[in-house]
């Protein structure tokens, strides 16, 4: 009975399992790193969109309606709440606004946007920027 059995030896199985474990561990680390990067990027994009909503509101608002005191509000949805604060500095010819958006969960990073609104000139001839012959 000198027949040769078909199949793998125990050494071949152990070596293949070690190689598979190394490959899967590396893939797991890469997957975690890319998921973390995607999460941070998503948070940054959401924070920027929330900030730009407030910036657009103050850009479209008439100059006399802009509040001269600090205002804050909280916006967002489940696990994505942000606090937006607008701190105005009223000068003679303009209002400088600092809009700070802070994530209330996870990273607690802030985004700061500075906005300047100039006081409109008095209506009358010569003050229309669209009139070329006035």
Strand content: 25-35%
Indicate the structural class.
alpha+beta
How many distinct helices? 1
Number of DSSP strands? 4
Major β-sheet, in short? 4 strands, antiparallel
* Mean pLDDT over the full residue set: 85
Order of helices and strands: HEEEE
Indicate the percent of residues in helices.
25-40%
Unreliable stretches: none
Order of strands, main sheet, comes to 1-2-3-4
User: What is the 3D shape?
Assistant: rod-shaped
Query: C-alpha Rg, in Å?
Result: 30 Å
Q: First CA to last CA: what distance?
A: 114 Å
Summarize the structure.
This protein has 134 residues and is α+β, with helices and mostly antiparallel strands. The N and C termini lie far apart (114 Å).
List keywords for this structure.
rod-shaped; alpha+beta; 134 residues; 4 strands; 28% strand
Could you explain the architecture of this structure?
By secondary structure, the protein is of the alpha+beta class. The protein is 38% helix and 28% strand. The chain has one helix and four strands; from the N terminus they run H-E-E-E-E. It has one helix spanning 10-60; strands spanning 71-77, 80-90, 94-103, 110-118. A four-stranded antiparallel beta sheet has the order 1-2-3-4, with helices on one face. The model has no long low-confidence stretch (mean pLDDT 85).
Task: Give a topology summary.
Blueprint: H1 10-60, E1 71-77, E2 80-90, E3 94-103, E4 110-118
Antiparallel strand pairs: 1-2, 2-3, 3-4
């Amino acid at each position: 009975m000198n027949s040769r059995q078909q199949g793998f030896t125990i050494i071949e199985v152990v070596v293949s399992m070690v190689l598979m474990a190394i490959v899967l561990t590396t893939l797991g680390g890469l997957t975690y790193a890319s998921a973390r990067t995607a999460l941070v990027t998503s948070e940054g994009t959401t924070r920027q969109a929330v900030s730009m909503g407030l910036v657009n509101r103050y850009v479209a608002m008439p100059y006399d309606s802009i509040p001269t005191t600090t205002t804050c509000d909280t916006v967002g949805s489940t696990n994505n709440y942000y606090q937006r604060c607008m701190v105005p500095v009223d000068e003679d010819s303009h209002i400088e606004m600092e809009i700070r958006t802070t994530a209330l969960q996870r990273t607690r990073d802030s985004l700061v946007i500075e906005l300047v609104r100039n006081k409109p000139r008095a209506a009358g001839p010569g003050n229309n920027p669209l009139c070329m012959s006035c």
